[in-house]
Design brief:
There is one protein chain. By secondary structure, the protein is mainly α. The chain has one domain. The protein contains 16 helices and 4 strands. Strands 1-4 form a two-stranded antiparallel sheet. It has a two-stranded antiparallel ribbon with strand order 2-3. Strand 2 (195-196) and strand 3 form a beta hairpin. Helix 6 runs antiparallel to helix 11. 34% of the residues are buried.
């Protein structure tokens, strides 16, 4: 069953994507650890960390594309799930500091000692164990998404109203985590991490390992999303996206499908946040900012909504441009980001991958039609998104002329 599930996820595009990402997972850490610094092929540690951060952003964009591109749920609050996963990992990393903190308290983090906390809050229990923290990384965002989706989807809240509610959710969490009495570090958040699973978090080997872990998580989540979207479940999700009322009329429990894909997407966002925090070294309430969620939607739109690969590509390209612009022209970065979204909306509504794929399909169709008109025996196939192609119908050949007659006889 698992082999057939993964087989559905594979095609030429997925194979190329996984091959490129697999090569990066191997070559980037190898270039950092085994190639001498004097070599032009050496990958500096800061570049490994930067690219690892891009991979976590790509995983977050993949989660948004799953719900928006295939189910039509425009989420403006996925930064909340990303930040919750990051806080779960940050709590584990804070518990690992122990007596090496500024105040030397073996139990309480430094910010709690500074605020005169007398004991560790109950919701910090268990975070001294990695397996518990890893479980919370997926459970906390997943449970929040399930509860939110249960009420929202059963109430049939859709469209812009759902988007506004998701943004209100992440803004409410932003305000809550800013409070010092919440026990999450307030405005400063969680930082000053020392080690992860006993490894120095600043060491080159740890940085390379985190990059590889981010790449592997992206591959696994991509395969899961790809298998879902190419299955019967994926066809129902697309039907919900395109004609929700008609799908419900046909007897499908639309809210169940929405709830499943929404919860899965939130868990993926939590994993992305957990991998993000040890690489950047801090997590604070700023990660809940609604602007972050809007920026993720821009990544997906630029790369190509409903393509999965496009979401990854858009996240990497936009963040690479952000890195370059903020260093070279920091005062115009926000204008460039807004202009990019406007240009994509007006001239590339399908994004980079969607536009290229559409152009390639049209080119192949014209070539097949030209070959057929030139005398080829194979009839031109229907466009891939046409009703005939979906029904696997091949256009019939024209009837052959009967000898002795000026015009061909009608087909029987």
């Amino acid at each position: 069953m698992m082999s057939s599930f993964l087989f559905r996820a594979m095609d030429a595009r997925a194979g190329i994507f996984i091959a490129i990402l697999g090569a990066a997972i191997v070559l980037v850490p190898a270039g950092n650890l085994f190639v001498p610094e004097s070599s032009p092929f050496h990958v500096p540690t800061y570049a490994v960390t930067l690219m690892g951060k891009y991979l976590t952003y790509a995983l977050l964009a993949l989660a948004v594309d799953l719900v928006w591109g295939y189910c039509g749920i425009l989420s403006l609050g996925h930064a909340a799930f990303f930040a919750l996963g990051g806080y779960a990992m940050g709590m584990y990393l804070m518990r690992q500091i122990g007596t090496r903190g500024v105040y030397g308290d073996p139990i309480l983090p430094d910010f709690m000692v500074f605020l005169n906390w007398q004991e560790l809050p109950w919701y910090w229990y268990g975070f001294d164990m990695f397996w518990f923290a890893a479980l919370m990384v997926v459970l906390v965002p997943g449970i929040l998404a399930f509860v939110f989706g249960w009420f929202a989807f059963r109430s049939r809240v859709t469209g812009v109203y759902l988007s506004i509610i998701t943004q209100a959710l992440t803004y409410a969490l932003l305000l809550a985590f800013f409070r010092n009495d919440m026990g999450f570090g307030g405005n400063n958040g969680l930082t000053d991490f020392k080690d992860l699973l006993g490894f120095d978090i600043q060491a080159d080997t740890t940085r390379a390992g985190l990059f590889a872990a981010s790449g592997i998580a992206l591959v696994v989540c991509f395969l899961i999303c790809r298998a879902i979207t190419r299955s019967k479940l994926g066809k129902v999700l697309v039907a919900v996206r395109d004609a929700e009322s008609r799908t419900r009329f046909l007897g499908y429990r639309v809210e169940h499908y929405k709830l499943f894909v929404w919860t899965l997407s939130a868990m993926m966002a939590g994993i992305a946040g957990a991998l993000y925090v040890p690489q950047v070294g801090i997590i604070n309430p700023g990660e809940f900012a609604p602007a972050n969620s809007i920026e993720v939607v821009i990544w997906v739109a630029v790369g190509g909504r409903g393509t999965l690969v496009g979401a990854v590509l858009g996240a990497v390209l936009v963040n690479f441009a952000k890195t370059w612009f903020t260093a070279a022209l920091p005062e115009i970065w926000l204008f460039a980001l807004g202009g990019l979204f406007v240009v994509v909306t007006l001239f590339l509504p399908k994004g980079i991958v969607g536009t290229v794929s559409q152009g390639w399909t049209a080119l192949r169709q014209r070539k097949i039609s030209a070959d057929y008109e030139a005398g080829s025996d194979d009839p031109p196939s229907a466009p891939p998104h046409s009703p005939a192609a979906r029904a696997n119908i091949t256009p019939p050949k024209p009837p052959a002329p009967v000898p002795g007659n000026a015009e061909p006889q009608p087909a029987e």
